Amino acid sequence: LIGVALLLIAWYLRSFALKAQDRAIRAEENLRYFAITGKLLDSKLTIRQIIALRFASNNEFADLVHRAVSENMSPKEIKKAIKHWKPDYDRV
Q1: How confident is the prediction along the chain (92 residues), in pLDDT tens digits per residue?
Q2: What is the rounded distance in angstroms from the CA atom of residue 81 to the CA atom of residue 77?
């Protein structure tokens, strides 16, 4: 019973950290899109799509955002469409 409780605590701690980081990524990418276009990100984008978009360079970011919204691209498709990767080594 104690083992199960410890596993649940560990899972909750991990999920809370990832949720906080997802919110930070959403804010960072929203700011980046605003700096490039003067507009906020489309609310139709899911958090998984935004996380995939963070790897795109600034030159292709805005076009890829429009494509992701219009074609409802999956995160995997977004990553395949990126030509110039911007690595993210800070993910938890």
Answers
A1: 899 999 999 999 999 988 999 999 999 999 999 999 999 999 999 999 999 999 999 999 999 999 999 999 999 999 999 999 988 777 66
A2: 6
For position 10, what pLDDT does the model report? 93
Burial group, residue 27, by CB count within 10 angstroms (0-12, 13-18, 19+):
exposed
Residues 54, 29 contacting (CB under 8 angstroms): yes
Amino acid identity of residue 62, one-letter, is A
Q: How far apart are CA 59 and CA 73, in angstroms?
A: 19
Give me the amino acid identity at 92. Answer: V
**Residue 70 buriedness (CB in 10 A; 0-12 / 13-18 / 19+):** exposed
Contact between residue 36 and residue 58 where contact means Cβ atoms under 8 Å apart: yes
Q: Give the integer Cα–Cα distance in Å for 40 and 31.
A: 8
